[in-house]
Amino acid sequence: MPGFVLLMRPRDDGDETMRIGFTVTKKIGNAVVRNRMKRRLRALARELLAERGVAGADHVLIGRNGGVERDYALLRTELGKAFRKVTPQATDTASAQATTPAKAGAQVGKRP
């Protein structure tokens, strides 16, 4: 099970800015543990969001149990896989929206 879940939702407002949010529930641990997990997620996003994120979309990283103990390199690999799963393909955007969520914890959101 991955150390996080990646949610991505296109905003469709014409603004190409990528936004990101982080959340870690109290089930993960006390404030110290949750803040450590958020720091790790922020560092991952700082490394990968600019090159692999979707322009004009909101990204949310949700910390999961075990993410604090997991090796940083493994988390980085999982986030790279998750970004590849949620990034729409240039050839066929309709099939990209119909794909299933990534096994690395990614989920694609679609506005109604």
Structure notes:
38% of the residues lie in helices and 21% in strands. The protein has helices at 31-52, 72-86, 93-97, and strands spanning 4-10, 19-24, 57-63, 106-108. It has a four-stranded mixed β-sheet with strand order 2-3-1-4, covered by helices on one side. It starts with a strand and ends with a strand. Residues 91-101 have low confidence and may be disordered.
Measured between the Cα atoms of the first and last residue, the distance is 29 Å
Query: Beta fraction of the residues?
Result: 15-25%
What is the radius of gyration?
14 Å
Class from helix and strand fractions:
alpha/beta
Order of adjacent strands in the largest pleated sheet:
2-3-1-4
Helix content: 25-40%
- Following the backbone from N to C, one meets helices and strands in this order, namely EEHEHHE
SS element count, helices: 3
Q: What sort of overall outline do the alpha carbons produce when their principal axes are compared?
A: globular
Low-confidence runs: 91-101
Biggest β-sheet description:
4 strands, mixed
Task: Provide the residue-averaged pLDDT.
Answer: 82
**Count of beta strands:** 4
